[in-house]
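Data card: per-record layout.
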Amino acid sequence: MTSGNVAFDERLAVHYEAWYETPEGRRADELEKAILSRLLQGFSGSGSVLEIGCGTGHFTRWLAGQERLAVGLDFSPAMLAQAQALDGVLLVRGDARWLPFADGAFDLTAFITTLEFLERPGEMLVEALRVARHGVLLGVLNRWSVLGLQRRLAGLFNQTIYDAAHFYGVEELKRLLRSVAGGKAHIVWHTTLFSHGWPCSHARLPWGGFIGMTLVVSDGFWEVG
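The structure for this 225-residue chain is written out next.
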């Protein structure tokens, strides 16, 4: 994950992990990982995962803790330097448009709060599917949520990482996955990060602040869903 601005990337890399120690960050981290863990259960036979746009490796380290061989890939040297300092996972510098791996090199590929920052997400999803045997895991900020609105508004007053982001809704994200799957896709999704006081932590409702979604493939063919 990178903004394309080297100085901004360096500042972001230093403070990215610190955000997860704030009350807001701890809540988001717990809820996001819970929904991603739920979705990973659909890939119970999968042992390796490549996180594309891994940033400081926050979620790559978590994936490695799920008894999976996890590799993190990012284009930003500043992000990878921070990830390397935190240690714990294999890291590769690379471009999501041309992944330096053979076809089917991993069981899964993942984009966690990364797809929003890619200029040509469809092309990069095709490339991610090339190296994935079983499918793709997505964690995406929801355009149609209170949290999504707050983050977009924040960019009107100060430079933030979200300035260049394209937030997705559930239906737009599903259309994107179907477009790269040739119209045939088995898609599973849930959302989380509802407003404080919401009676459940996750649901199949389209307005949670964080969308967890998977595109499942089987034996090299798209599963029809």
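Known properties of this structure: The chain has one domain: 6-222. The chain is about 35% helix and 25% strand.

See the next section for split statistics.
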